[in-house]
Amino acid sequence: EDKRITHGNVSAKKVLLTREGDPSSPPFIKLNDPGVSVTILAKEMLVERIPWVAPECLSDPKSLALPADKWSFGATLWEIFSGGNMPLSLLEPQKKLDFYQNSLQLPAPKWTELATLIAQCMDYQPCRRPCFRALIRDLNSLITSDYELLSDLSPANVTLRDSFWGYEPLAMGQDPTHFEERHLKYISLLGKGNFGSVELCRYDPLGDSTGELVAVKKLQQDSAKELQDFEREIQILHSLQHDFIVQYRGVCYSRGRRGLRLVMEYLPNGCLRDYLQKNQPRLDHRTLLLYAWQICKGMEYLGVQRCVHRDLASRNILVESETHVKIGDFGLAKLLPQDKDYYVVREPGQSPVFWYAPESLADNIFSRASDIWSFGVLLYELFTYSNKSKSPSEEFLRMMGTEKMAQIICHLLELLKDNRRLPAPASCPVEV
């Protein structure tokens, strides 16, 4: 779902058991290839797949989308808790069609909360089905010490033991956004700045190298001030959820509060600045404008959330794929007070001044408008393919001249007040 990829054929038959499990370790499963897409299957083949195939796909196979997987997951959940039985699959084709045409539901399990979850997934209105992130949360909430509830669900004599729910992310009372330090396996350094570093790690609670790859940010020094700023950054990122903003995964504590680390999704293509430099020959203007549009959508969302990024630059945009970028690094971000549309930074520290608006340079004032200025500089970076010799800092320093290197901010402000701007990139469209 996070990758916007539809599977299209979720069922117990498509789940493979990699490891059976024992009292010391849980089973390990993988979702198999969907096979032939429902979009090209004959009608009779689709009818055979009732109740796993979503009703909207039966009437219009081309409508296959993420909500269809949610319906299929509901049917699979019912299947799992019914010992692998699916009586509906044995019905004649016309009776199967009647089941959908009359908007019927599978028999509700005796476990009320589970029945509710299945019913939500198998809602005949696709837009009302919950996202998988919400389903994970709801499955977590079903974990209970009263295992007798489970014994009513399966017609087979399944022996239920405490390790039945032994998966690390679903362990009882555990917050899935809290990562245990002992399970974070360091792989490599992704980046390092003045205040912190970002590492590539594998979160591997099973110890078999099947865990998720994540990006882990930690402070270089953990003074009280830096720790407070880091906690604010984590709080801001935790509150954001958008297609074009890097995803928060959770936090990890070592040595108590001072060993705080931020866990985020890992995007293997790195930052946009480096990506542009490496891939310039195959990135046309259409692709650059797509990136610009996606960054705009992400920034529009931040504006609604009253969040000012303050460090919008190509180095802080992460690349998921050739057609998908995300805004990252909220280390300088601020939430606007409810009664003001700007924020005055009292301790500016080390700042990306060549991306800053005049009011930010002169008075440390930041707002959505100053983020828009930074976006203009980012557009320049896009259409120069982040060429180092043409970077904003290099261009402005050239304008200043070597004799004025001492007080950069003052001289930069003078240039901007004199309406001096970055030059138009070569072959850049006039509108841009």
From TrEMBL:
Recorded GO MF terms = ATP binding; growth hormone receptor binding; non-membrane spanning protein tyrosine kinase activity
Ranges of residues in domain Protein kinase? 1-143, 184-432
Q: What is its EC number?
A: 2.7.10.2
One Pfam short name: PK_Tyr_Ser-Thr
Q: Which UniProt keywords apply?
A: ATP-binding, Kinase, Nucleotide-binding, Phosphoprotein, Repeat, SH2 domain, Transferase, Tyrosine-protein kinase
Which InterPro entries does UniProt cross-reference here? JAK (IPR051286), Kinase-like_dom_sf (IPR011009), Prot_kinase_dom (IPR000719), Protein_kinase_ATP_BS (IPR017441), Ser-Thr/Tyr_kinase_cat_dom (IPR001245), Tyr_kinase_AS (IPR008266), Tyr_kinase_cat_dom (IPR020635), Tyr_kinase_non-rcpt_Jak/Tyk2 (IPR016251)
GO cellular component terms, semicolon-separated: cytosol; membrane
The reactions it catalyses are:
L-tyrosyl-[protein] + ATP = O-phospho-L-tyrosyl-[protein] + ADP + H(+)
Instruction: Provide a GO biological process annotation.
Output: cell surface receptor signaling pathway via JAK-STAT
Q: Where does ATP bind?
A: K218
**Superkingdom, according to UniProt?**
Eukaryota
EC class: transferase
The name this protein goes by in its record: non-specific protein-tyrosine kinase
Organism (species): Grus americana
